[in-house]
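Second attempt. The first submission of Bifunctional ATP-dependent DNA helicase/DNA polymerase III subunit epsilon had a stray character pasted in from the spreadsheet, which I only caught after the job came back as garbage. Lesson logged: always re-copy from the clean sequence file. Corrected sequence (206 aa) follows.
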Amino acid sequence: MTASLPAVLTGRQLAVVDVEGNGQQPPEIIEIAVLPVDGEVSGDHLRSWMIRPERPITAMVTRKVHGISNDDVASCPPWSAVASEVEPLLTERTLIAHNASVELNVLTAHLPAWKPPMVLDTLRLAKYVLPNLSGGYGLDNVVRVVELDTSGITEQRYHRAGYDTWCAWKLLLALIELGSLDWDKLIKLAALPGFAPPSEPEGGLW
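This time the job returned cleanly.
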């Protein structure tokens, strides 16, 4: 299934991302998915990797979050073997994620030479477009409330990187439509601090 591209995103180079971690501090990536967007995209454009961390996955995150166990990643490559595949998919692209500060912090630690030109957070955007949302702004609840069609990919489980990436993309499209947003408004509402342009002083130009 192809997700049509709204005019506001036409010509923009985007990368929708989700990472899952091993529960350690600092966290190591054990699963990552990237959806590069240069036009209309489908689930076939989604790329994902399972990664064997240096430290074990904690039992708590396996049980309560993503369900990924140490056995699941035992034969997977380490981060050093996949970083060269992941980084080009992110370079010079606007990073999009739900609660994007998590993805930004983890990816910055794993890719020290990488810095996105812009980071847009669908969680921040949802708080504006869907104020006072019952049940909170976790991705699963927002997807349920908006009644997003998440078909188009095989994986249909929250807190798996591919599914959460696809949901974040479909959510972005829905929020843009619901909020009737142009690019400037999207940046103002969804950009993480440090990426949003400074507000113009009241009273016009000085």
